[in-house]
Amino acid sequence: MRKLYYEDCHLREFTATVTGCEGSEQGWRVTLDATAFYPEGGGQACDLGHLGNVEVLDVREEAEKIIHLCDGPLEVGAVVEGVIDYHLRFPRMQQHSGEHIVSGILFRRYGWQNRGFHMGTDIITVDTEGVVPPEDLASIEAEANAAVWANLPVKTWYPDPEELKTIPYRSKKEMTGAVRIVEFPGADICACCGTHVQATGEIGLVKMLSSVNFRSGSRIEMACGEQA
Question: pTM of this prediction?
Fold first, then answer.
């Protein structure tokens, strides 16, 4: 199955063949031979939209299959048009890419990995291993926006195992198998399965909002792009 959201992160419409459709208590579980719908994962919510005349309510990856939970059935073998809700997709790409740049700055400055992050409707929260002083937020924001406004292309690729050993990428755990690397030149290199902008300028703006003590580290609130 082709993951079209990796081939073109700005793809809004596509056609695909229905390969499976099963009813469930939540709705109809539809599989396709190709999809531009990103499934929930890596801290990023799934895409929503339509397949033919049915609404896509949720998208998950299960056992290497991408399941589109729909509010109606689709005929197996039928060719359908998929339409992504781009008003959800693009801001999420801005937020996720901006978070990478900020997390890369925190890693270089303090040597800390982020413990996790959450993309909400309006803000992003990032949990760090160590304490980020609130007075440092202004300089972190300035450095992040310098990376944004440099408008450099974002590189995503799957290095072979030998190349992977030579890449100084951020990761909270040891990675095996096919590892997708996302690089923001001069700002961050990280293993990530999410969708990202094609060039840093698409992020638009990074705004640091707050940093408070959380467990043994900090919880940072920030916003990017349209939300900022």
Answer: 0.94
